[in-house]
């Protein structure tokens, strides 16, 4: 079966600022109908990657295409089919929120519609106030309302919910899921891992200007550890010696412990636990946060080899 052509394709993308190489080697693709989560620590290069994609910055090497067109050479044509929301939304201070929404729409060749009104209502924005009076969250809402009322093929959000309260964050998530159902594609950079976990089909982790991992959350889970709380009839004396077992902590003597197990060692560890006759067992699957912390803390590519 033929895979559809990617909507976004980034190959060996590099960006230098003087001597500083902000992007060393960025590689990932986004396919039609996909929500792609872009995560990584502060300063990893997410916004720089996005600025290159938008044609704001010129790459120093490699290539990036959207809709099969080079992002630098064809930025004008590409912009007609994308909607973008930055994390730090700049608004004209003397215009009202409503005027700015209409201006954003006009710049994208769109018009204020009933959908725009519904979005203003849903996000609870007062569009009559001057932008200079808006809080960070309200400024983000202005940009989000304009983006969601735009009929684009590709939506790029760079930390769009950092200033939103939980209710508005939920509204944001609902609209992203609606876009996905319409077959639109989304690039979402976010530090809110639960949001990424909930909404993204695939995830790319960037660290120091390099993509260290891409895949579905299920694919990434094999790199992580499952947490187990177990109680047995016989004491679990040998548990700590088994390969892939980490952080054995006694909860109540040697018969009730908690531990973490590498995904590839789950079978032998479970066999040992069963041998000791299970009384109770609770497992907690690794979260995106666990996975992410490992990349945050560990130096380059320590995921497969780090010790205890
Ligand atoms: N115009 C610039 N000139 C020089 N260095 C820059 C410039 N823009 C970004 N950088 C550097 O490039 C690196 C990547 O920055 P970037 O803003 O892309 O990070 P980020 O992943 O978006 O971080 P955050 O999560 O904090 O938003 C940082 O070290 C930053 O200081
Ligand atoms: Mg950023």
From TrEMBL:
Alphabetic keyword roster: ATP-binding, Nucleotide-binding, Transport
MF (Gene Ontology): ATP binding
Keyword Transport in annotation: yes
TM region(s), chain numbering: none
Signal peptide: none
Entry superkingdom: Bacteria
InterPro entries to which the protein is assigned, alphabetical: AAA+_ATPase, ABC_transporter-like_ATP-bd, ABC_transporter-like_CS, ABC_Transporter_VariousFunc, DrrA1/2-like_C, P-loop_NTPase
One of the Pfam families matching this protein, by short name: DrrA1-3_C
ATP-binding recorded as keyword: yes
Segments forming domain ABC transporter: 8-233
Family matches, as SMART domains: AAA
PANTHER family reported in the protein's UniProt record: ABC TRANSPORTER ATP-BINDING PROTEIN ALBC-RELATED
Protein name, UniProt field: ATP-binding cassette domain-containing protein
Species whose genome carries this gene: Lactiplantibacillus dongliensis
